[in-house]
Predict the structure.
Amino acid sequence: MSALIVDNDAIALIDRARALNAQGAVIQGAWSRPPREPCGPELLCYRAALGGGPDEPCPSGVAPRWLSDMLPALDDGLAVDRVQPVFDRLTVALRLAAVQHWDAARWERVHIRVRVELVRLAWSYAERVRPADPPAWWLACERACADVIAALESGDSAAAERARAAAEAAAAAWAAAAWAARAAAA
């Protein structure tokens, strides 16, 4: 049986990010800010707390590139009251991944699950303003979201490509409808 080698540098960065998050030192809208108090912690966005920077991802032992690239948008897109709980859960998952040495296949399953949940979350917000009699472009968007989820969950690359194309077409239709509505209101 081979010995398990733990990336202590990655775990140290993850633990640091968790501690900063617990102290309320993870910020939104900037990479870093001076401490609030003379001896307080530097205020950092979540990716910076994990060792990444504006032009560099988190170290590979901390998070895969796709997740590192997603962190600034996630950080800035969360409601202020959701930052600490979301990043606390994410930090626990990152630490588990580092200790268990998740391989590329495991991270790909996580990536698929994240994308599925993001589509579901986005659509749940759209559903809040669903018209009583939805126009064709709305129904196309709804179908595209369902198709993207089904394709991601099936693992069928051809289905994924068709779903991607349908989603792009639906997004274009949605954008055109939004533009027309703004133009009509002007």
